[in-house]
Amino acid sequence: MSAATPGSTDLALFDFDHTITHADSFGRFLRDLATPRQLASAKWTMGPWLAGYRLGLVSARQLRQRVLRLALAGRAEAEIREQGLRHAREVLPGMLRPEMMQRIASHRDRGDTVVLVSASLDVYLQPWCEQHGLELICNRLEASEGVLTGRYHDGDCGPHKARLIRARYDVDAFRQVHAYGDSPEDLGMLALAGQRWYRGRQVA
Question: How far is CA 79 from CA 65, 149, 180, 192, in A?
Answer without folding.
Answer: 20, 14, 32, 37
